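Supplementary notes for students who missed Thursday's class. We covered one full example, reproduced here. Read the sequence, then the structure, then the short commentary at the end.
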Amino acid sequence: MKTSTLPAIRVKPELREAAERALRPNETLSKLMAASLESFISHRIAEDEFIARGLRAAETARLENRYVSAKDVLSQLDERIAAAKRK
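Structure (token representation):
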């Protein structure tokens, strides 16, 4: 597979300096940018999937008229926290 280039981006000098300071040994700015872009894309995909699941769950709850009260959810979370602290 051939690689391709991305458009050059203009950034403030402070951002470029911070990026250069963040480089690991033997890492280039190009490698950092590519890794950052891959990470951001993965995050964006996960975020989109999370939102889609939430919207599907809301639609299912409306169609089935099945809801869980906030009080019940918080109570269940408190129980989980208490159980985790006991371990």
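Commentary. Helices lie at 13-22, 29-64, 70-86. The chain is about 70% helix and 0% strand. If anything here is unclear, bring it to office hours.
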